[in-house]
Amino acid sequence: MPNLDRGGSVLEAVGVDAFEERVYRALLGLPDSSAADLAAALREPARKVSRALARLEGLGLVRRPEGRRFAPVSPEAAIGMLVNQRRAELDEVRGAAAEFVDAFRLRDLRNHATHPVEVVSGLDEVRRFSVGLQHNPEKSVLSFDKPPYATPPAGYDEVAAERPLLERGVEMRIIYERPALQLPGRLASVTELVRLGEKARTLPTLPLKLYIYDRRLAIIPLSGSHVSEAIAVVHPSALLDALIALFEAYWERATPIGAVPARATDGLSSQEARVLTMLGAGLSDQAIARQLGVSLRTARRRITAVMEQVHAQTRFQAGAAAAHRGWI
Predict the structure, then answer these.
(1) Torsion over CA of 35, 41, 43 and 47, rounded to 10 degrees?
(2) Could you report the per-residue pLDDT of 148-200, keeping only the tens digit for each?
(3) What is the number of domains present in the chain?
(4) Alpha-carbon torsion 89, 90, 96, 99, what sign?
């Protein structure tokens, strides 16, 4: 608490010093006063009082309608506003402190791990820890991408989030479970990431969700639901080596996903190229319809037209045509 015997201020916590509080208290008793009036009442220099009034006006404690004399703003409203503002600032400090703790913890996990596996639990802890790792890889990210997913924050852009990593040369090798590519717009995002430098492949199924950062740390969500309340953090150990080997074994079996051209090429329009790529990636007719934003009947017409254009009688042959063009 402020020490008033030493000239402290009750309002110090919201940014009002002792002299400014004296001026505000005087104005509460002498509303509609000029700076000179208050200076005389306080027996203080007019310039000093004017500076205090300007500061109080900036804080919303004092008003001066159309440049006339000063009047106090209702303490209940004005001080309440300052308290709420300071509370918001403290919340930001608390958030920054959590980031500092995460950075310290990440360093500790990378450099001073004493156990091969550590469990991080709690939605907020898992989210902060995971986000910190996603933005800090130095060399590589290996991942099994498998639904279900947590709901992304509003405005989340997968391409924008990964682009900085690719631009600074981080190797991104991602294996997508086929249902992941069937989500609306997902294949378009993945092919754009491939164009930017991601190495992507797909398989019908994957055994688990997995993230390996710089081959030094692995994350395994411990919940099968879309929200993970706990993750296993695997440090350098035989278990980490086994997870890396598991990833490489699945990588060899997976089908590559190439970048679909943005313009007409090889006799196909960009949309026809997308359809051919989706066929090669094993997407169902329903999934292709969702990706294109059209009805199932329209999607089937387009699928038939593309298969005829590349002389494919089966989806396997369509996949071979897409692979020949480098799109899977």
Answers:
(1) 0
(2) 887 665 567 889 888 999 998 999 999 999 888 888 888 888 888 988 999 98
(3) 3
(4) negative
**117-121/199-203 β-pairing:** unpaired
Q: Are 24 and 62 in contact (CB under 8 A)?
A: yes
CATH number, domain with residue 158: 3.30.870.10
Over residues 18-52, the pLDDT tens digits come to 888 888 888 888 888 888 888 888 899 989 988 98
DSSP string, 47-72: HHHHHHHHHHHHHTSEE-GGG-SBEE
Distance CA 246, CA 228 (A): 22
Distance CA 324, CA 156 (A): 34
**Burial 309-323, CB ≥16 within 10 A → b, else e:** ebebeeeeebbebbb
**Geometric angle at alpha carbon 119, from 116 and 122, rounded to 5°:** 165
- Helix extents (H) in the chain: 18-29, 35-42, 46-59, 75-111, 123-134, 158-167, 178-181, 186-196, 238-253, 270-280, 285-292, 296-309, 315-324
Give the distance between the most distant pair of CA atoms in the chain: 98
Q: Is 106 inside any structural domain?
A: no
Q: Locate 80 and state its tokens.
A: 């309440």
Is residue 38 within 8 A of residue 19, CB to CB? The reply is no
The phi-psi region of residue 267 (left if phi > 0; otherwise alpha if psi is between -120 and 50; otherwise beta) is: left
Q: Determine the Cα angle at 214 with ends 208 and 218, to 5°.
A: 30
Record the pTM. 0.54
Domain CATH code at residue 69: 1.10.10.10
Q: Find the domain containing 277 and state its range.
A: 270-324
Which secondary structure element, helix H or strand E, spans residue 120, and what is its range? strand 117-121
CA distance 80 to 76: 6
Per-residue model confidence as pLDDT tens digits over 223-254: 765 557 788 889 998 999 999 999 999 998 88
Q: Which amino acid is at 84?
A: N
Task: Render the burial of 215-233: b for 16+ CB within 10 Å, e for the rest.
Answer: bbbbbbbeeeeeebeebeb
